[in-house]
Give the backbone structure.
Amino acid sequence: MALVSSPPVRRSALPSRVVVIALLGAAAALVLANQAYRNAEITLSGFLIGVVGSDGVAVVPDRQTVYFGLGSDTPLGLRMTPECTSAFLVLPLLVIGAVMIALRPRVTRRVLLALAAASVAVVVVNQLRVLSLVGLVEWLGTDDGYYWGHTLLGSMVSVFGGAAALVLFVRLATRR
Amino acid sequence: MSLDVLLGFTQALALTMSVAFLTYVLLIVVPYLRHRPAPVGTSTAFEWHFLVPCRDEEAVIGDTIAYLRMTFPLAHVWVVDDDSDDGTAAAVQAWLDGGDNHIHLVRRARPHARTGKGDALNDAYRTLKLWMGRHADPDRAIAVVVDADGRPAANCLEVCAADHLFGTPTVGAVQVDVRMLNTGVPQPDVTRWRKTFGAALVRMQDLEFRTAIAAIQMSRGVTGTISMGGNGQFTRLSALDSIAGPTAQPWRGSLLEDFELGVHLLTAGWRTGFSRDTHVHQEGLYSLRRFLAQRTRWGQGTMQCMRYLRHIWDSKHLSTLGAAEMLYYLAQPWMQLLGTLVYPIPLLLLAHRAAVNPTEVWTWFTEGAWILFTVYGAFGLLPFLIWGPVYRARCEPGVSVPRSIAYGFGYALYIYTFYITSWRALIRLLRGNNTWTKTRRNTEAHAR
């Protein structure tokens, strides 16, 4: 009996191409369906503010706004604007991930894992920003709390959180 | 896309790019500050060949040959005359007539000359191979590319022969630190303003090479992607042989032939090294016009090297981290182009709002937005500012603290010129203008 070697298995590049297209599609969706993303994001904020115990919380997703302190004398509404959303911080990660997978398909799993972890980190950081703002408003009052929370602390959280998410992404996506 | 979404998108993109850059700088500055000199090796374990490409270098080549022969008496000096219009060849011939058999002249003639530094180096490589003969040991021979005004430090051969550099057989090339010979030396015979400006420009070049570029190179030791520069470039002959191909051309045709060489070596499986324990001195440029021309050429060369992206990512010798680092480097001029488009958008939209409703914007600004501006301004400046004090701490301890901070601000301004040179490079690329425009020396006649 002759031993016949089987022809080399040719792996299809389709899965990685599909992933690349899906990631780029997701990036485009973050821009085109930005309002829907912010609706979801502010709903999550409302849930978390309620969990940490603010006195009366209501979410109006259509306005991308969460109201808190409704049982107090100083209720306040926070709107998730396009400038405050985490969508546009996730977007560059999606594009970079798509480029990496397109150039080296064998890292697809690793990059997707890194993308998931970094995206979660960015979303969590943005929720922490909202929670810290709510905490400061309740602690220092509406004017001072909003002033410091929205400007200095919020920016710091964004910068350091963004840096941590990027480091996490690079570390997870490029580890051997 | 609504204006709000555009504003949010561009702000977030600007923030991401700034944060990415700041994080990168903080990650590279720590190993740079922790660096300690490594033990040196025995230079006589190797055979050293200086390759000096020259195109109209009469003003400097004589002194360079004298320096190389006196400082490295065992090394050979190969001057490649790229069909100079001046007396470069005659200056070298005068040395040959003196009977020094360690000096060699490789003459090129038009139409095959003046086609790029890479071609000139390839001629030197082929001549060197012929001269060495078949039985020479290419693992022991090191080709050192030095500019016509280059001054390698006296210890450079010992440092490069160290166990962690050429003492390791898999290391194919080593790049050494670059310093400016004329730092602190004012340009003669010019107005006071030009003297001050020229001295500052040279200082910034010295600061850039000795701090930021050195730190980037050291971080590439981790990613395995140390790149080669045009001056102080040491390459093992066997490494050059392995990438030379049938036409014996280890250097290729891009305007950034040094980086290109590194790409070919790394993707062929060689390791590359970098050392701050020695250096090569070169002349810094006093003229902004010449500086911009030089950086435009470098930017265009980087853009040209984008063609290696697929090759880099396909290489089994480069890790994903290494390939990502090279992607980041190659993307720099493109990101600068993107930056010039993205960064102004939030400011333009703000200006529009201020024009439409000045009271509202003023209230917004005074009630806290100024803090945002301060924070983002600080994060935008810090990655450049930091190199001033780092330069003082590791390179020039005689510089005062306030002056080192001023150097940091100066460096930020200096880097902003890259936004100009990247656009110039793109325009040249689109026009198909890929000629080698040699940067003229400070001492050349008719200098402007």
Observations:
- Chain A touches chain B through 35 residues (CB under 8 Å).
- The radius of gyration of chain A is 21 Å.
- Residues 29 and 156 of chain A are 28 Å apart (CA to CA).
- Residues 14-174 of chain A form one domain.
